[in-house]
Amino acid sequence: MTLSPATPSAALFPGGQASVALTITNPNLASVRVGSLALDTSRGSGGFAVDGAHAGCVLSALSFATHTNAGAGWTVAGSGSLSVTLTNALSMTASAANACQGATFTVYLTAGP
């Protein structure tokens, strides 16, 4: 199973939240259940990346809330993919630097049981 890097589905601003969108792909013949989607802190900078034009944006201003689809998780059909939007999963602190204005963020996620 693979997860595409998640991207905010709307502009993120200091003190605000944004939903993130990703695709879960299952190359196996059998269905796979994903119980949770959490930040993969081993990738990027603590689980986040920012576009090259905004390298001065301090990514510690971002946080991600683990999602479980209200405890139901997600089921991805065999040899299929599933588009997922995680509502208000990404937050930015009110003290985020001006260098973050107009930045494009990537959120790296990991799937849990």
From TrEMBL:
**What name has this protein been given in UniProt?**
DUF11 domain-containing protein
Q: State the organism named in the record.
A: Nocardioides endophyticus
